[in-house]
Every structure is written in structure tokens, then in C-alpha cells.
Design goal:
Helices cover 41% and strands 16% of the residues. The protein is an alpha+beta fold. Helix 1 packs parallel to helix 2.
């Protein structure tokens, strides 16, 4: 997450995209939100492949 924050500090993105369809990964959505808020960025989370795991409570929920 330190690398993500450093890249955001350098680039000042308007949109941060979270997700990966090749393998399931439990993302730290709260930390991404903090980084986005720091720069006034939007967040988009692609959870299409892991939504069942999120619904069962096995992975972090981006909508908490």
C-alpha cells in the first residue's frame, strides 16, 4: 500500500481502479479510500470475480 500511496502522490490520479480478474485477492478498501480522499480521487472496484466470496464474508467488502 505504501507503493500505491507513493504513486498517487506522484501522479495525482482522478480515478483509482481496484481489482484483478486473474486471481482472488483481499484488498484493503479502507486504505485505498484514504489514499483516494487525500487526492480527491474516485475509486472503482472490479469485484465481479470475487463477489460471491465477499457476500459469504470470506473477503473484505468494499461497501462497508
Amino acid at each position: 500500500m505504501e507503493d500505491v500511496e507513493a504513486e498517487a502522490d506522484k501522479c495525482k490520479p482522478h480515478l483509482i481502479i481496484i481489482g484483478g480478474s486473474a486471481y482472488p485477492r483481499d484488498f484493503d478498501y479502507k486504505r485505498f479510500r484514504e489514499i483516494a480522499d487525500k487526492h480527491g480521487s474516485y475509486i472503482m472496484a472490479d469485484i465481479s470475480h470475487i463477489n460471491a466470496l465477499i457476500m459469504k464474508g470470506l473477503m473484505n467488502d468494499p461497501f462497508e
